[in-house]
Amino acid sequence: MADLIACPTVSSESNLEMMAYLADRLTSLGARTELFTDPSGHKANLFATIGPDRPGGIVLSGHSDVVPAVAEDWASDPFEMVERDGRLYGRGACDMKGFIAAALAVAPDYAAAELARPVHFAFTYDEEVGCLGAQALVRELARREHRPAMAIIGEPTLMHLVDGHKGCCEYTTRFTGTAGHGSAPERGVNAAEYAARYVARLLELRGALQARANADSPFDPPWSTINVGRIEAGVAHNVIAAHAQVDWETRPVRPEDGPFVSETMRAYAEEVLLPAMRAVSPEAAIETETVGEVAGLIPMPENEARKLVAELTGANGAEVVAFGTEAGLFQSIGMSAVVCGPGSIEQAHRPDEYVSLDQLGACLRMLERLGSRLAAA
Ligand SMILES: [Zn+2]
């Protein structure tokens, strides 16, 4: 874990050093290890397998990237692991290098056992900036003949068993109008005003989303949400705003709600706002950039991964959480998935991030039991 924390894998930087380290360790144990680089060549996913070459394996999934750390806010160097009072401190300690280190620590046991079912290590890039690595990895797995059956995502849940979380779809919508003097608004196309109408429509959709929520939704709040995170437009009081930008997101609790929101907004922009803008200026435009669309993890009546992890951890029942993970992506290709990992999300993305030794111990016990189960299966 100290070696992993020493790799400053902030999402904006390369993760290749850490991936080479993980690949070395796993290859030396006899794992079949594959590295998939992203188009830039500076980031990679690692997918490694121990056990037989057959479908039905279990994926241990963790992201390699971490959020930035401002050193002055920390009691010690964020990229040097420090042990204090039964806790291990460092950026990524709970989110989620603790889990990756635990998976690596049990790998020699897996390699020594005669596994009846394969175990796969899936370590990804760019989770913190839209699950980009996991999206690429899941596309790769979907093409394979021998697909794993389930995934355990080791995001920090205090080792609680989690079988549901919302999705997260982020968009940037840009409005291009025509500038002019503020005294003659009818001669220009005011991008700020069209952005305001767009935002008003977004807020109206909140009511529609509440009405669409399932009565037995386990989420809090039970419906899909919309947030307008940033609005930027114009230059001065007396100038018609030529440009505007709205950064917004929706967090669907049901998979249909994501397309419902994006399609409603696309139609409103193209069929209502844009014709009005173009009536004044043919160059007027509205463009929506999809920053990321990350699938939620839908709680399912049947979930093989939930059954397995409940047996391994002794959990009775599963919970849902508010934060997003890569689990929904694995579920989207027909795998069953749960989130269960050491440490608390409360410590993630904060100065003095830590994971307790107790939590790591509980995680190691789960993974050791998994090894026995896979050997006996
Ligand atoms: Zn994370």
How does this model look, in words?
This protein starts with a helix and ends with a helix. The mean pLDDT is 96. α3 (93-112) packs parallel to α9 and α5 runs antiparallel to α6. It contains nine helices and 15 strands. The protein has 377 residues and is an alpha/beta fold. It is elongated. The strands form four sheets. Strands 1-2-6-3-7-14 form a six-stranded mixed sheet, with helices on both faces. It has a four-stranded antiparallel sheet with strand order 10-11-9-12, with helices on one face. The chain has helices at 2-6, 16-28, 93-112, 132-142, 191-212, 257-278, 304-313, 327-332, 357-376; strands at 32-37, 44-50, 58-63, 82-84, 87-89, 119-124, 150-153, 162-165, 168-176, 225-233, 243-251, 285-294, 319-321, 336-339, 354-356. The structure holds zinc ion. Zinc ion (ZN) binds at residues 63, 95-96, 127, 155.
- Determine the mean pLDDT: 96
Q: Strand percentage, roughly?
A: 15-25%
Can you give the helix content as a percent range?
Answer: 25-40%
Q: Please tell me what the overall shape is.
A: elongated
Can you count the beta strands? Answer: 15
SS element count, helices: 9
Order of helices and strands: HHEEEEEHEHEEEHEEHEHEHEEH
Bound molecule kinds, no repeats = zinc ion
Stretches where pLDDT is under 50 for at least 5 consecutive residues are: none
